Amino acid sequence: MEIHEVNVLRWLHIVAMVYWLGGEWGVFQTSYNVINRKLSMDERRRHMETAYRIDILARTGIIMLLPLGLHMGFLWGAQPLGGGWLTLMWVLFAGWLGLCWSAFYFRETDTGLRLTKIDESIRFVLIPVLLISAVSSLLGYGPFGPAKWYSAKVLTYSLTLIIGLKLRFIMREWTEMFRALAQGPSTEIEARLEKSIRFGRSIAYGYWVLILTTAFFGATKPF
Q1: What is the biggest distance separating any 2 CA atoms in the chain, rounded to whole angstroms?
Q2: How far apart are CA 115 and CA 107, in angstroms?
Q3: In b/e form, how buried is each residue of 157-177, taking b as 16+ CB within 10 angstroms?
Q4: Could you tell me the pLDDT band of residue 28, with boundaries at 50, 70 and 90?
């Protein structure tokens, strides 16, 4: 039996999507205990630690989806960049993934916060590039091929990156505010923490809809 390259990539793409969607749900549920003032500070910090350990898998999934999708897109003829460009792409994304995991490893330190901000800055560049490429391709002028479903998938994926970026800000705020709370109780900081997480939960619903829409375009290729 022969195993084709595109089928292996599709399998990895599905695994990445599962960890992304499932991980975001896990963080969503854990956040209830992070802001529960009835729990001790140590208990809340344990829940925050659990949220970070779940979230790193979601972050890994969302990063891996793009190079996997671009690689499959070349094999399908949906995007024209292959060969050495694909090799360079994988090297760059491996570096980005390494940065993401380094930020996770040093998450409780100033180094971790700096690495997280660098991770976020990459998205400020990547998101506009993806949005412009997807929209222009849907209009018939962009870099992607005639398969409109592929451009639509890139578009919805880039929109998830926007929401995901905001959620990254929120989790960074968790770290900063918990470090402040470690110095002593603060009603003001507790209120900011609750407000931040409530906002994160409100946009999470739209996030899941976009994730499922992205998966739908990839699975059904409707146009």
Answers
A1: 64
A2: 9
A3: bbbbbebbbebbebbbbbbeb
A4: confident
